[in-house]
Amino acid sequence: MRLPPPRGPLTEALFDRLAGSPGADRLDAAVTTGGLDDDDVQLALFACYELHYQGFEGVDERWEWDPALLGLRAELERCFEWSLAAAVPRPGGLEPAGLRAALTALACPEEEPLLPLFLQREASLEHFREFVIHRSIYHLKEADPHTWAVPRLTGVPKAALVEIQSDEYGGGRPERMHSELFRATLRGLGLDDSYGAYLHRVPGVTLAISNVMSLFGLHRRWRGALLGHLAALEMTSSLPNRRYAAGLRRLGAGPRTVRFYDEHVQADAVHEQIAVNDLCGAFATAFPPYTGDIVYGAACALELERRWAEHVMGRWQRGAPSLRARPVPA
Fold first, then answer.
1. N or C: which end of the chain has fewer CB within 10 A?
2. Structural domain harbouring 69
3. So which domain of life are we looking at (predicted)?
4. pLDDT recorded at residue 320
5. Are residues 150 and 227 in the same domain?
């Protein structure tokens, strides 16, 4: 993908440097403040992380490990971690025996989220297009952030993660990879299915959902949080995806457009048990001090999802789009 237009002084300075060659002593971009929905900070952090994935057209690949850029990324990550800590309390004194109950309490709120119900029963085709544009930022690289944990695990947790990821990657069949199934959904809704095509349209609160996965995935110290994050996704996936599929069928979508969501209804019900018991449970038993990290990672995933859904529904209820306006061409 291409670098999007900057959204503030931080991304303006960063993108200007990425257009050139690496090797500077430092990057002239100071990180001062910025919360979980800050467009400038979240886009800058996303761009730093993306250098470890597919990268950007016209950006020298040597930037991935450039010391100056890594220094800036570390500042951005500190800001992000502080914001997460302020929004999500860290659990204390949790033993492995209490892990499943703690995860279940997080994943089973008293009230069902409004967004899946709205998409099933009331959403227009334009609402659905906005929804999948938001989701394209992660779903077109689906599973990749969690795969960073594979070489950091051993034994039962490692085998469990590989089993889950194998399904995410289509069991060796490219056309069944979940990212490819999502491309079919984009095409079915008349949208661009290329990687990162809508990066310029999504707000910071959407980017934060992807950024937290990369933060946990790229740092070994956060591997417990990464496992909890994955468990939270699997535990809260089946019912919403069933509603998304029903909503698309209500709007006349065909089987290929809906298949991504149908696939997750079945697959994630199985993945939930593997993630909770064989992945997180076995890891916590082997490393009891990381039990709290597992729950923290799950809580971060759900809190960012809640904030994102609140942003989307809030805009829709006011009759406004949930995406950023298209930038005016230079």
1. C
2. 9-87
3. Bacteria
4. 97
5. yes
Regarding whether 191 and 48 lie in a shared domain, the answer is no
The residue to which tokens 């406004």 are assigned: 320
The residue out of 34, 67, 87 marking a domain boundary is 87
pLDDT at residue 190 greater than cutoff 60 = yes
Rounded Cα distance, 197 and 191, in Å:
9
DSSP structure class, residue 277: I
Quote the pTM value: 0.95
Q: Which contacts of 124-129 are long-range, i.e. CB under 8 A and separated by 24 or more positions? A: 124/251, 125/189, 125/251, 127/316, 128/189, 128/247, 128/248, 128/251, 129/189, 129/190, 129/191
Q: Quick check: is 322 in a domain?
A: no
Instruction: Give Cβ neighbours of residue 322 (< 8 Å, ≥ 6 apart).
Output: 130, 134, 203, 311, 312, 315, 316
Provide the pLDDT for residue 23: 84
Q: Is residue 324 part of a domain?
A: no
Long-range contacts of 246-249 (CB under 8 A, 24+ apart): 246/120, 247/119, 247/120, 247/121, 247/123, 247/128, 248/128
Residue matched to tokens 């500042």: 75
- The pLDDT confidence band at residue 99, using thresholds 50, 70 and 90, is very high
Contact 69, 63 (CB under 8 A): yes
The sign of the dihedral angle between the CA atoms of 112, 115, 118, 120 is negative
Domain end marker among 30, 60, 87: 87
Contact in structure between 34 and 44 (CB atoms under 8 Å) = no
On whether both 213 and 262 belong to a single domain, the answer is yes
Angle, nearest 10°, between helix axes 255-273 and 223-235?
Answer: 120
- What is the Cα–Cα distance from 292 to 284, expressed in whole angstroms? 9
Please report whether residue 4 resides in a domain.
no
Q: What angle do CA 140, 142, 143 make, to 5 degrees?
A: 155
In a domain, 329, yes or no: no
For the chain, the straight-line distance linking the first and the last C-alpha, in angstroms and rounded, comes to 19
Q: How far apart are CA 220 and CA 236, in angstroms?
A: 25
Q: Higher pLDDT residue, 266 or 169?
A: 169
